Automatic annotation (TrEMBL):
Keyword terms of this UniProt record: Acyltransferase, Amino-acid biosynthesis, Cytoplasm, Methionine biosynthesis, Transferase
Protein name: Homoserine O-acetyltransferase
This protein's encoding gene: metA
Family: Belongs to the MetA family.
A Pfam family matched in the record: HTS
Amino acid sequence: MPIRIPDALPATETLEGENIFVMTEYRAIHQDIRPLHVLILNLMPTKIATETQIMRKLSNTPLQIEVELMRTKSHEATHVAASHLETFYRTFDEVRDRHYDGLIITGAPVEQMPFEEVDYWDELCDIMEWSTTHVHSTLHICWGAQAALYYHYGIDKYDLPAKASGVFQHRLIKPSSPLVRGLDDRFWAVHSRNTGVRREDVEAVSELEVIAVSDEVGLYIAKSTDSRRFFVFGHPEYDSDTLKLEYERDIKRGIDPQIPVNYFPDDDPTKEPLNVWRAQAQLLYTNWLNYYVYQTTPYDIRKAGGQ
């Protein structure tokens, strides 16, 4: 089944070029099916790239999904045209009275700042609080996961001795979880972050459980025991060249970054990286949508979130 997104969104042409079934709004409203309503709070500066990456993962399922994009009003985005934001993005004020089957909160390049110093922190707190009564299931990614653990459970992040950048091997702590159904016992996943959350801090909270970890970079997946909140500390949505683009960006900035681990063949940045995380990333999104959104959300969307 297709993903339903605005016809003129840049992601539409990209996804159609990959033979991904994107349904027009006209066709969607003439089907007698209630689609899943998924809201994406995109906090990344590279908004078009991020929205396309996430929609690519959402589209490869047998479910019809209607996607909406949201931005923070208290932060002025500078890496995307204002016309793009005005055309395709809503603010929290425009959606606060609505209910959603799913919400995705992305990462953001503010991880080395204290949470309270982020200029949109208060707005993000309002959104996370609203999600408890207006969203059936929320998926938090990277810094979004750290922010949610801090807000909902008081778990703080900590600075890593060096940036976790690369493709790392992971193992399942709870292989019986439907969230990781189909994943190999050992699998690869992308991380790109300067901060982390300690596994023992998550395990000390009875309402949380750890699903997957890396011996090199720590936590990868955790969730709430009521299956309403999911926390992914890496970037399963990343394209094959995203880490490469970040590495080249940092070189131009004079940061002298380390070469991403297990990414370039022979650690040679002139060689094209191979994508070894695509399958697990797709399974992760598909399992979340199927088992924790579609299978359990109320048919009457006004009841989503339990309000």
